[in-house]
Amino acid sequence: MTLLVISPDYASHLLPLAALATAWQRAGDRVVVATGPATAALAGSFGFEHTELSLGRGSNPGVIRAEQQPAGEDDALRGFFAATYRGMAETLRFQAEARRNDLLWEPVDRAHAVLKVIEQVRPDRIIVDHLAFSARLALQSAAIAYVDVVLGHPSALPVGAEVYGYPIAWPAAFHPGEAELAELHRICETVRDGFTDEWNAALHTLAPGATPVTDAFTGHGDLVLYNYPAALHDTARTQQLPVPHAFLGSAARTETPTADIRAWMDAGDRPYVYVSFGSFLSARADVLSTVITALGRTGLRVALATGSAQGLPPTPADWLVATYLPQTALLAGAALAITHAGNNSVTEALTAGVPMLALPFSTDQFAGAAAVEAAGVGIALDPNAATAPEIAGAVEQALGCAPAARAIGERLRGDPGPGVAYTLAQNHLPGHPPR
């Protein structure tokens, strides 16, 4: 049997998809990953085959830097970072307007490329990142069944009256004005309508007889899997989700720390905090600097992944500081995670049973941080407003959320996401009978 995994050329997307694919690998199946050149080596590190498929202009091998992006994409990335300084509504507005150009890049050409890969690989099962819109367009046009994996917050697939790009919730620390929210909602609706027109035009070119859609952001595959814990999802919203669907809890990869990192984890009698703003938001060195100052007052040890941040203040000698750190390995022993509330960070922290201090900057991070807060597994602050004393106080509060986080972690580890995905895909994917 052959599994085809289709992912954008971003490590943060491929890592959870690759973790899911290990279930097929353990069953002795062939796994082929179709992604761009930046993450080809990452696919190979899992022992998977790689076939090249670029689905967008940009890429991210693990730590993204504007100067490493192609012309045009570099300025867009700088514009995004600048928007994060202006707050939630401005950042989401910038991202909504950029969405006109970045989610359906050369859709007909890319769809043909996807179908060519499928013809060459001849897979029995296909797993696709939900945000790989050109790939899903290709599969819809050819009526090919596939597993649709929503890697972000579940609101990345809107239901009911939701509009893609407009947050369904945000933490109590954020206070956007009614006027700016109304303008953001209007922009998101305009982008939705334009995106849908573009989708339908491409669909008509690929399959002239296909039925056009009314909202391309609400489309999905034959089986929808949410890389998210059910315990964090609003039960009323769950009733509106596509059928069939399932919550995977998480797709946390297994990492083995090097000897020196293991020695650091095991050293001393003080707990440690793991700090990371992911592959993008580490560019906010100002916020990381405030976090460093705050943690210096707590007496806790710190494992700090600096990413692309420059000009950070000095750190104590007993801290572990590096551009990149093995996140899931360090979370396994951490007392607290300080995070931008990206979906990988939230789900991996909870898999380890670790509470969080969330500092969201963009996209679905606001909804993710709000869910962390509502579930009692962490505290959320506005990264643009929080002071070092406020962050230090929030660290103490978040540490008190450990029992709730541990309880969720025990449940997630007892039913790992890869096994859930494998069973459901084998038994419930239309067009492919179970083995």
From TrEMBL:
Source organism of the structure: Winogradskya consettensis
Alphabetic keyword roster: Transferase
Protein name: Glycosyl transferase family 1
Coiled-coil residue spans: none
Superkingdom of this protein's organism: Bacteria
An annotated Gene Ontology molecular function: UDP-glycosyltransferase activity
InterPro entries, sorted: Glycosyltransferase_28 (IPR050426), UDP_glucos_trans (IPR002213)
One biological process term in Gene Ontology: antibiotic biosynthetic process
